[in-house]
Amino acid sequence: MMQIGNKEIGRHTKPFIIAEMSGNHNQSLERALHLVELAAEAGADALKLQTYTPDTITLDVHTDEFFISSDTNLWKGQSLYNLYKEAYTPWEWHEAIFNRAKELGLLAFSSPFDETAVDFLEELDVPAYKIASFENVDIPLIKKVARTGKPIIISTGMASVAELDEAVRAARSEGNNQIILLKCTSTYPATPANSNLATIPHMRDLFGTEIGLSDHTMGVGVSIAAVTLGATVIEKHFTTSRAEGGVDSAFSMEPHELKMLVEETERAWQSLGHIQYGPTEAEKPSLEHRRSLYIGEDMNAGEVLTSENLRNVRPGLGLSTKYYDLVLGKTIKQDAKKGTPLSWELLM
């Protein structure tokens, strides 16, 4: 169990839901603040930004490996520099966004992409940090974040076990053991078949941390499945409307879907309960509606029970049906009307 701000995170409490704004503000502060309001209305626990500039994340080069040409890439046809120029959240907006989140009861933090971003976010006193999948091998950045003493959420996309071990050890080497690892598939969108959620309990056992999911699939099914496997944190990109476009809109949730995510992941968590056999307290009234043995027609004392006058029916106030063969041929010692539950006291 750990804590971010005033929110506890662990299997004893409902999943911690992070609404990732990313670049879905479409370079409008008004839209960004509206997204904060929508996240709060949907019931998310936290809002997350990304803190970088085009110059802190790549080079102003527009050819070769700095140009996205893959047919399978959502952002084909753009240079990295221009993509990040379109997607980044201006640093001068952060304080206004964080303040609006605080007013609405949302925790707010960010993913820093270099050490200057960490220094900037420290000035805003963020309650936690997120390391993006593409930065989970940036050991100097992880150590810098760890030294703040605040919780670190690390997405695990693309990372091998050895790379994750190095990242976790780097954080712990700075005295920070407040680590949450998010199972992540770094494709946009991701498919359920490529999500490999069976890794979640294995990762928890391997690293001894809280585990969650950074989910780039469409819908809520994968996130719900993750909760049943022990995920305690769910992160999803969200937008006002996919139809309005934006750098991440194609794989982002709309407000009604985010609300559904909050509600259904909590239901999934509630359903886990504990190991239980036998009737729960809520089920006990239903026991009387099981089948049991009843007198099926009016009988006189001294008559013999047969397949015609002994019935296996609901409700369950008579002898258990497992005694059916045992009592067939037995004699009753008193008159019994149709609908009398069979009991040992009725038999001779």
TrEMBL record:
<dbReference type="InterPro" id="IPR006190">
    <property type="entry name" value="SAF_AFP_Neu5Ac"/>
</dbReference>
<dbReference type="InterPro" id="IPR013974">
    <property type="entry name" value="SAF"/>
</dbReference>
<dbReference type="GO" id="GO:0047444">
    <property type="term" value="F:N-acylneuraminate-9-phosphate synthase activity"/>
</dbReference>
<dbReference type="InterPro" id="IPR013785">
    <property type="entry name" value="Aldolase_TIM"/>
</dbReference>
<dbReference type="GO" id="GO:0016051">
    <property type="term" value="P:carbohydrate biosynthetic process"/>
</dbReference>
<dbReference type="InterPro" id="IPR013132">
    <property type="entry name" value="PseI/NeuA/B-like_N"/>
</dbReference>
<keyword id="KW-0808">Transferase</keyword>
<dbReference type="InterPro" id="IPR036732">
    <property type="entry name" value="AFP_Neu5c_C_sf"/>
</dbReference>
<protein>
    <submittedName>
        <fullName>Pseudaminic acid synthase</fullName>
        <ecNumber>2.5.1.97</ecNumber>
    </submittedName>
</protein>
<dbReference type="Pfam" id="PF03102">
    <property type="entry name" value="NeuB"/>
</dbReference>
<dbReference type="InterPro" id="IPR020030">
    <property type="entry name" value="Pseudaminic_synth_PseI"/>
</dbReference>
<dbReference type="InterPro" id="IPR051690">
    <property type="entry name" value="PseI-like"/>
</dbReference>
<dbReference type="Pfam" id="PF08666">
    <property type="entry name" value="SAF"/>
</dbReference>
<dbReference type="InterPro" id="IPR057736">
    <property type="entry name" value="SAF_PseI/NeuA/NeuB"/>
</dbReference>
<feature type="domain" description="AFP-like">
    <location>
        <begin position="292"/>
        <end position="348"/>
    </location>
</feature>
